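Re: the 301-residue chain
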Amino acid sequence: MRIPVQTFAGNPLDRDHDRRLDKAWLTARLHDETSAGLALWNGAVLVKDGALARLPADLAHDLSGGEEHLLFLGVEADGSAVFALDLEGAADPAAGPLQGLGDFIGLRDAAALLPASEAGMTCTAKAVFEWRRRHKFCSACGAESRVAEAGWKRVCPACGTEHFPRTDPVVIMLPVRGDQCLLGRQAAWPKGRFSALAGFVEPGETIEEACAREVREEAGLTVTTVAYRASQPWPFPNSLMIGLEAEVAAGEAAPDQTELEALIWLSKAQARDLMAGRMEGMSSAPPLAIAHWLLKAWCEG
């Protein structure tokens, strides 16, 4: 089966769940010269010469100050272990303990430079670190929780509740009718930007129901059929974008003026011009986003 790979997908590491439980193995790998560490600082990633900067794993361990800022990402094809280091604070570590090893670049910008496999690894690290940062206290009793299983779990020492990384599902859809598609615009986006419609899946909803609800709420249209196209991990902070194409019934599209301030119908020729930057004063979502891929896939059939 041919699977389309979106930006941030395609993490090549074997996550090797069983190794997360083996503290002796993890300790040995942290002091193994074949192991590597990847560094993130306030969500930015350390890059050198257009690729992820690889740190000695023991350096990553020393700088982490403990399990709270260290994550076992997995094992590479040659068997070497990869860890991620989460650095915080105002001072740029690239001008301090990591001087000469690279520069920190925002993940969106880095993703445009990095090989797909490396973008996938950083996506995983950022998503887990963001979850850990936002879930330091037990939701059951309020006590401060502790990192476990090499960073992939938090455990409350007070009540014993276990907490695992969460992913928020988001439907992102291209409404279509005949040979036209519908794009929307949010006021907060760059001037002239139009993109696919999107929204979080709510409790008790299927993907199809969420798609229909969002299109009805944002554009006032009725969805008749839904087709899955692709998905994309989106670590800002912890989403999975579920890409859909949605046939809509006849009717006038009207922006809700809450989520969307404007809507536009485009033919395939117009959509191609939009993506190529040939529509004056207008732009599409960047190639980084699955919204761009959905539009491109529709144009190409």
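Residues 44 and 106 are 4 Å apart (CA to CA).
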